[in-house]
Amino acid sequence: MATMGTPERAIPPLDADERAALESWLxxxxxxxxxxxxxxxxxxxxxASVAPSPITLLGLVQHMAEVERNWFRRVLAQEDxxxxxxxxxxxxxxxxxFDLAEGAAYEKALPIWQxxxxxxxxxxxxxxxEDTSPFMGGQVxxxxxxxxxxxxxxxxxxxxxxxxxxxxxxxxx
Length: 173
Known about the structure:
By secondary structure, the protein is mainly alpha-helical. The protein has five helices and two strands; from the N terminus they run H-H-H-H-E-E-H. It has a single domain, classed as Four Helix Bundle (Hemerythrin (Met), subunit A), CATH 1.20.120.
């Protein structure tokens, strides 16, 4: 059964400064996705949503590990960080972790995702919100990356909510 000892999901502070608000909202959605996976068996985590969509909770965890790596390592920190779940693939053309390889398992994906989140926090701590990094022929700020990541997680948490409801009827986490 999948469990990560998910901490209580903290409501972001209502009176935080901008950086604390962005960090808190991102952590809120990270925790939401983890809670959507909590308590499920491996086969349930691999269960596709609704045809024709192949999206699974495990695929969402893998995808978010890839997205964390892309934005906080490749873009923000300009690190050479190859794709995780499709080794050797071009980061620009890979599926982003949604596809489940033969040996894919939550117990393998979870620590990878957690490590990418930890690395993201460290990389962000080294930058001001106004700091820029090269991206698509221009510059992108850490503020923009935070905002994008919050939107990315929120969208995928919606997917996760629907998948979880279909699996066992659980909603509202």
